[in-house]
Amino acid sequence: MAEETNAILIVDDDEDIREFLRNLLDTEGYRTEGASSGREGIEKAVQWKPDLVLLDIMMPQLDGYEVCWKIKSDRATAHIPVVMVTVKNDVADISRSLTAGAVGFVVKPFEADSLLQTVRMVLTGRPFDSYANLHPVMERSIAKERAGANERVAFVNVLEPGGRKSIFCAATETPGNQLLSLWQEAREEGVVQSTAACLTSSGAHFDALLGVIANRPTVKILDCHIYDSSVARNR
Amino acid sequence: MKSEPLRSESATTPGSASLPIWKDTTIVGEFLAALADRRTYNPRRNGYVFFGLLWGIPIPVVTIGVDLYAQSLFPTARNVANVLLAHPFQIIFLLHPLLFGILFGALGTVRDRKEQRIHGLLTDLHARLEDLEALNAQLREADQVKDEFLSMISHELKTPIVTVRGYSEMLLRGRAGPIDVRQTHIIEVMLKNIDRQIHLIDDLLNYIRIGAHPDDRERQAFDWRDVILHARDTFGASLEKKGLTLELALPKEPLMVYAHPHNAEIILGNLLSNAIKFTDRGGQIRIESADSRAGRIVTWCSDTGCGIPPEAIHYIFERFRQADGSTRRKHGGTGLGLAITKKILDNYGCSIRVQSRVGEGTTFYFELPATAGRPPVAVREPVSAGPGR
After folding, report:
1. Between helices A112-124 and B88-172, what is the axis angle to 10°?
2. Mean pLDDT calculated for residue range A79-106
3. Which of B57, B136, B192, B236 is such that its CA lies 20 to 30 A from the CA of B198?
4. What are phi and psi of A10, to 5 degrees?
5. Minimal C-alpha gap between B384 and chain A (Å)
6. Closest-CA distance of chain B to residue A226, Å
7. In this predicted complex, what is the ipTM?
8. CATH code of the region A2-124
9. Rounded to an integer, what distance in angstroms lies between the CA atom of residue B43 and that of residue B64?
10. At residue B294, does pLDDT exceed 50?
11. Which of chain B's residues have a Cβ under 8 Å away from the Cβ of A177?
12. Residue A217 contacts residue B266 (beta carbons within 8 Å)
């Protein structure tokens, strides 16, 4: 139960949302602390050294990107993973968050499970447990991960309105065009529930994935997180 | 003729013996002989005209000098006049730098004038370019302000819902203590409506975003059939849920459209979701598309649904309008779908029309801009290759 007592810092200027998030995470057994502004968030991150920071983007004065950047650039807090929790839901916002150093992105209003899953995966560093049975392509990346290859994998969770089912799409280190075919592969193999979308978060592949999503207005992004096998191993 | 006095007596003067090698042999010899003894000099045979042509100013000056020398050691003005008149070309040679000066000066002036005009034009152009850039910057700024404004509105509208939705879900999942069946039902209805509200906000913001003119640089050539096939996949679950069949009638050749793939998907998605919404269980939806060969890709989307009453057909493309208030309660939706669809098509200069009969069904006809004159290259990878192709 060691991981259940992880400390989570919630930075959000809306008191009710802060309260709700604390409520939700408390019942899951996490220790939580709230901060009502970016400045306070940075202070608390330094003092309290939480295991995870949930960060709102649109806040007065210091916005989430800056807070994230400050946390990541301070040696004392650089190791703390940051997950953005925001109403922003554009591909550009995800891109910008990840550039600022965030490892996760949850779109508000979120489903409790979506948030909890992201939190759990970022804290344990073991996303493959959750995605393993989703899609054969995942098997490949799991095999790779077990082989010890250092890779950064991006999981993007999206919602397609047609069937109100979530689709993940899987691909590791695949160029953009193959990515599309994998997306399709996932559908054709009759994986009705969800397949995972993941690929190296660095550079072109990830941009290609985001590009695909951006070109599909009917697809809504639910959450996204980055898995880095080197960080996970050092834990 | 005035040239008469210039003529020397004869070539057989005693002095000519001093330069026997050159004598009477060449023009140069003549010239040298003249230098030796002016009496042997025959200016008629002076070939300096050609040398003058070749060497420019020094030769005529020297040869004129020689001519003058041949007449007397101290030439008078009359001698000079005689020499010049005897060889009018000399004048031209003497004056040619001046003539050139005048000619090139004139040309230079013309060129200068032209350059000045070009310079003026360039300055003008530059000023206008600067104006345009300033305007562009302003527009970009306005665009950014609009984006920020939309982002802010979206934030303000959604933030209150976050907690309401969160707590409702928490209650429903029993995370805040056990609830009974009746409470479960109540909370489910709440959640459903909250989701509808979120959907409405998204649609509304999309509508405002699309209202701005889309960036033409983002237009692409792509196969419209792929969009249709993809939509069939996307809506597969909803079709199945309502027991509807979707029939596609697509040509074998690609239907290359030049538009924003994004918008094409919105158009089809809206029409298809409407068709699904208003068609009862067991009904049929049919999408047919073809190249009109007139720069347009035409598509018919028909269903066997409840149809649109004639009095409502005039305002279905208006915002927030469904045939009547009760349909919204029954079928859900924001009433923005068709307004958005029409707006997108308007931006492309394409039309959409509707034909409907109550109880029998509805057919939407719309056009999309074809890839006119462009090589049929698929920019997007085919996203779906279902068995229907």
Report:
1. 110
2. 88
3. B236
4. -110, 115
5. 6
6. 24
7. 0.74
8. 3.40.50.2300
9. 10
10. yes
11. 381
12. yes
